Structure formats: C-alpha cells, structure tokens
Amino acid sequence: MSKIISIHSFRGGTGKSNTTANLTTIYAMQGYRVGVVDTDIQSPGIHVLFGIEEEDMVRSLNDFLWGQCEIEEAALDVTERLATPISGKIFLIPSSIKAGEIARVLREGYDVGLLNDGFNRLLDALELDILLIDTHPGLNEQTLLSIAVSDALAIILRPDQQDYQGTAVTVEVARKLEVPKLVLILNKVPMSLGLDTVKKRVEASYNCPVAGVLPHSDELMLLASSGIFSVQYPTHPVTTTYKQIAAMLIS
Amino acid sequence: MEPLIVDGKLETLGAIRQYVMAAAAQAGLSKRRSYDLALAVDEVATNIVTHGYNESGLAGKITIRGDIDEHALMVTLEDSAVAYDPTKRPPPQEEDFDRPLEERDIGGWGVYLAIQSVDNFIYRRVDGLNRNIFVMNREPHGDLLIVATTHETRDSLSRLLRAEGYEVEAVETTAEALDKLASRPFDLVCLDVNLLDGAGPSLIETMKADNALRGIPILVLTNLDSIQAAEQSIHAGADDYLRHPFSPVVVRARVGANLEKQRVRIAEAALKESEKYERDVQIGHQIQLSFLPETLPQPRGYEIAARFAPARQVAGDFYDSFLLPNQSKVALVLGDVCDKGVGAALFMALFRSMLRAFSQQNYPMSMVMDVSAEERRMLLKGGNIALKMAVELTNNYIVTNHGATNMFATLFFGIVDPATGDLYYVNAGHEAPIIFNGSDVKSRLGVTGPAVGILPQMSYPVHYAHLEPGETLLIFTDGVTEAKDPGGHLFGEPRLLKLIEQPATSAAVLLEDIEEGLREHIATAAQFDDITMLAVRREPSV
Amino acid sequence: MAFNSSLDMSDGVAKITLDGELDATAAPAFRDTIEQAATGHPQRLVLLMQGLEYMASAGVRVLIFAKQKMGANVDIYAIAPTEQVLSTLQKTGVDRSIIVQDSYQG
User: Fold this and answer.
1) Please, which residues have CB within 8 angstroms of residue B268's CB and are 6 or more apart in sequence?
2) Mind listing the pLDDT tens digit for each residue in B119-145?
3) CB distance C25–B102 less than 8 Å?
4) What subunits touch chain A, counting only 3 or more CB pairs under 8 A?
5) pTM of the model
C-alpha cells in the first residue's frame, strides 16, 4: 500500500488543496490514520479547509525545519473538527502563516533531507497509515523532494494549454525520479467538453492514467467554498469520483 | 669500507693495524690520532687472539670494519670467542701508575690503553659474537686559502699550516683567489697586505659584499713596515693579521683562534635556526590545537570521546564533532593530512574548516537528480547531501587551488542519528573504523572513496551502518596502528583489536586503555605521528 | 715494519736498539734480547728508541719483565722515544720508574 502520497499541480488555482483535503477525509472515514503535511510553505492554505485558525497553530512545519521541535509536535489532530463521525484520524501539520516566518524559510532554506526525515518520523510517531503531502505549485525544492520520496504522485491539471505544458514537465521529472505510481487528476473540466473525451485525450498525450475527472460548474464552486465537499455531500457524484481517486492512489 | 676478515692469530695483528691506519687516513684523522686508534684496536685484537682464542684452545676469525660518516670513524672488531666485555675490566688505580715496574703485574694495561686512546669505546654481545666498537671523531680541519705575491710567503706559510693538519691552497693574485673561492668553500683566507693597494676593489671589499663569502675570516699577512696598512685592512673588514717572518706558534694560535671564532658563529647560526624550527613546531601545534573542538556533543544515550596526542614533529591529524544545523544528528569527522610540519597543520585547519562549513549548508535537490534511485533514497536522509557535498567540494577545492602542494588527507566523515543509531558515512581512503560490541567486532567501515585532494571531480557516495545499543564506533588514524616501539615494530591492528576485547565501561575509558597500550608500546621511542581517536558509544538499552 | 732489536754490551751497560713495530707478535723477540742482556748483569739498561715506530702494551710488559729480571737497582733509560711511544709510557705510568732522555752519552 502507498504510504506517502503527494498531490501536486504545476500552476495554482487547480484545486490542489481542496482535492488533498477531500482525499484525506475519505481515507480517514475509511478508518485510516492519515497525516497531511502542508509543504506549500510560501502560500499555505489547506489548514483553512480543516477549520484551523492562526491561534490554533502552536507549532508549525517551519519550527521543525529550524530544529525547534520534533515534527509530530507540530501535528494538530483535526479529526473532531469535521462535522461528521470519522473512524480514523486526521493529523494536520500546517505551515506557518506568519509573514516573517514564511520569509525566513525562503531566505535561509533548509535541508531537504531533514524534511524527508520528518515525513518518516511522522509515519512512525503518529502510527500513520497514509501521509498526504500538499505541495507548492510549480517545481520548487520541497516539491521535488516530495515527488522523490513519494510512493504515489497525483498531478492535478485543468484542461488548458498552460496546464498541459506545465504538467508535461512535472510528469517528466516524476518519471526521472522514478515515482512508483503516477496519476493525473483532471479538475474544472467544462461539462461541454465531454469528460470522457478529455480523459482519453489526456491519458494518450501523457501516457499516464487519469484517476478521475472533476467537472467545472458554478454549483460546485459555490458548494466547495464552504468546507470539505465530500463531508458535506457524501453521496454527490463528485464525492464518488474522489473515492475512486483515493482508491486508485493507494492500490 | 669493505670489511677485512682474518684468522684470530698473532700474525694477523699487523694486517689489522694496517687496515685501521688506512681507515684513519680516509677519515682524515691526524697522524697522532690515527696511531692512538690503531693502538686501541691492536690491544683489543691482541686480547681476542691471546685470551679469546689461543688460551681457550679455540680458533676463529676476527672481522674488522671501518665506517666513516660526516662526524666520525667507527671501527668494529667482531670475534666468535667467549663473551668478554673490556669495559667491565676495572681500570688501574692511581697508585698503580706510581708502582715501580719491579712490583707490577706483568699484564693488564692493554685494555686500559685501548679505552683511553679512543673517543668512545662500545662493547656489544650480538648473535654469539663479541662486537668491539671504536669511535674516533673526525676533527674539523680547516680549508685555508693563501693569497700572496711572493713565492717565499706562499711556500713558507703553506708548509707551516699543512704541518698543522690544514688543507692549504696558495695563489698569487686577487683574481685567482676569487676563482678559488667560487669553486669550493674555504674556512679562512690569508691575504698579503701588498694586494690591498692595487687598482679596483680589494679582495676584502669583494668578499664582504658577497653573501656567500662575507663570513670567511681574513688574516692579513704583513711585515713590520706595513703594520699601518694591516690596521687599515682590519677597519675594512679583515679579522686579524700575521706578521712576517711567521712564527709557527703565533700562526698556529691566530689561525686556530679565528677558525674557532668562525665555528662558533656557524654553530650559533645553526642553533638559531633550530630555535626557529622549535618555534615553528610550537606554532604548528598551536594551529592544530586551536582547530580541534573544545567540547564534543553528548546526545542522550550516547557518549562521545576523543583523544589527540600530537607527535613531536607537527603532523596534520584532526577530529571534529558537531550537531548538524537544526537537527539532532551528530557529525563525526576524523582526518589525517598526509604530510608533516607547519604546512600539514595549516592544511589540517583548512580541511577541518571546509568540511565543517560545507556540511552546514543546504543543498538544492538538483544535487540528487542525476543519481540512481537507490543513491537518491540514501542521500535524501537528513544531512546526507551535505555529507557528500562537503567531501566533494573540499576535494575539488583542494585539488583546484592547492594541487601544486600535493597535500591531501584521508578522512572519515560520519553522521549518526542518535534517535535510531543510523550512521551514514564516507570513508575517503582512511583506516577502517571499527564497530564492536563488547569483544565482538561487528563491522569495519572500509574505504568508500579516494583520499581527499588528489583527483578532481571525484564522487563520494554515502554508505550506511548501524549502531545498536551497547555498541561502540572507534575511529582512529594510522598513528595508532603504525606507532613504533624502540625496535621499530608497529603497534599493529591485532594489538588494537586485542585492547578492544577488554570490555570498557565508557568510550573515554576505552580510549584511555588504548592510549596506555600505545604508550607502553612506544616506550622510549619517538612518537613519529599524531595519535588521534574518536569513539562513540551507544549506551545499552535498559 | 718488522720489529728488530740489537744488543750491545759494554762497561756494564746493556744498550738495545729498537726498530720497527713492537706489538704482541714482536714482544717475544724483545724479551729474548732482554734475557740475553740480563745474562751479562748490566748496571744499566739503555733502550735506543728512535727507530721504534710503534709500541703496544706488549712492549710495556717486556719492560716490566726486564726490571724484574735485572733487579730494582738497574736503571732503565728510554732514549728518544717518538711522541706516540712516549705517550704510551706516560699513560701507563712507566715513565715514572724509568729515565726518559732525548739522547744518551757514553
């Protein structure tokens, strides 16, 4: 079974954090103990989806990278925060949202190996079944590391030219880094394009399986902005697609 | 000289004396000292023949050999007769010398004469042979140059000085003198006062202006009516003067005194040079010490200890241990710069500083993009890229910037994670550290890459080992295994492994035990190389 | 150079001329000459040493033998020994019981 799963997109705005939060929740609802690390140090955001405010963050990933705590000390058990019974566990390791701390990491950098040590320590210390990594868009250091140490990588893209080109770059890097499992997730696909048609075209052009296709609709946008979609709409077809993706990533 | 082997019979004593006289001539001993040496050897040889062989009814050979070095002639007599140490014979008492002949014992003076006649006498019993060694120091005789206009002066003074045992050359003009002085070193120049008022610079001026000739004493040869000129020449730099007609006593005294003065000057310069060397050694040691860590990290559940015993001469060993930035991992470094002297100390400082600085940097992922998946997994452990890069960057820096000095180092660089006991390391041509538990050697961390500073662009892959509770990692330099006892025998690895077998209660005690074992081995021999050890002990789990 | 000794007895004086190298090999010949001289009961033993190039302790032994053979009242003269031979006589204290002279008249 895949233990470390990275969720990536070449550009921002693809719904990466949303997808990560949905997959996390689905695994936890299936009884898994799940960790989710926000490695998007430059523009952290996933904590919002789990209802975490700035004052809830006693420790962050930043503190660990500066040697100020063990990584598990930054983990927040957010299981109870979701308005639904969850048989597993969800631990969130947030990145600091303090401007000074963000700037400091960018200025000083850190040892990528240390971040990897942190991932492995989390798996042990919190007895995790699955660790999800929400990455920063594009190919920066922590993204490259996340890709390199992942058992599975999901690249999210929208059906537009810029995403197509960027995704090609990421796929190439993932292949170079020999990620055992590589899948694509198509998001915000206009219904008018025909979801299945788009899926087939993308699979053919990247020679890579598409784990799921999520449609673009104003209704979805409206629903999604208020929380984790699969928690609120457990029977919605989109939730079903998330479940398919989740199953494929750990198979 | 080729040894001479003769039968131990009275008839061969003449041949032995002849051999000694030839050796003495070759060593340049004076007639008087040659005689004394021949007498000494003859007396002992006589003893060997009459007492060693004849009286005991034995027959045997006598081997005689002369060895000449810069300072001395050494004559060795060897025989296979029963052991006899001439130095054990009590010397005659004061009253023996006054005893009238008719009251004396007939024998007993030979050995005394022999020992009295040489500068040093040594007896050894070696492999069933008596070895009698006679040492005569070679007197420092002077090479003198006489520069004089008249044949009479050159001739009389040459004869006089040669009789004193000096090597003498005599020339007529200043130009010839300069040619001679350029051809080989002279210890003293005797200069005719008549040559001082010619055209152009005098020989004195020329010599004083020349660094190589400035120190050679100059004696001006003068007669009564040129005393004033002689005095002027002393102002110009001459050391002394000799007045014609030459009195052997005065010539002997003045030449001897000036040569002696010159020798004292040279000896003082040599002493100063050696004091300077001493100071350099001190500086080298200080550099080396100041680049060793003042304290060692002591992570929970571990003990880290180090020992550093500098050689008499400055060598280039170093050790270091520090926490990786922002991590609880401990870097362990031990290196040996393969040279001696202040240069080695400077390079030790350079290696140590670069390794420390480069291992505390963050390196981009691009460093691990073009390696195998297996190596990438290894490198993506915290600190491992830094470990690899520190060694590779140091290697390239040394080769590129200091390649001409041919300085390089063997080193071990490990990173241990106290939480897990995981140990990642690079061994660049160094002695294989030992991981052991009690008396059992678990593994040796052999060489994983070439010594640092020889070839550019070398790759240093990281290797893995593990330290279980109760196990100790011992890292050491070849100063340990190659420590020599007074007989030149190496301490050797078997002995080190033997010491490890004695279970020590702590890393510090282990290193003390090893050091004690080394001290016993080295005993009175000079410690040629630094002795450096670093031990990491993981405490047994409770 | 081979050792040679020649004896000349006259007026109670035994004169022996010594030549060459007096080592342990040559000592018996010197001793024979001393014994021969002793048969004439000289009052004085004069050793002409000018040509004596070398003398080991074997020579000293013969001198002791001579004194013991001829008696304490027979004076031994060493005439014109070389610097080296004289040094051996001095180092052994023999010069304290014999008479060393540059030349001998008579």
Assistant:
1) none
2) 889 898 888 899 999 988 776 568 899
3) no
4) B
5) 0.62
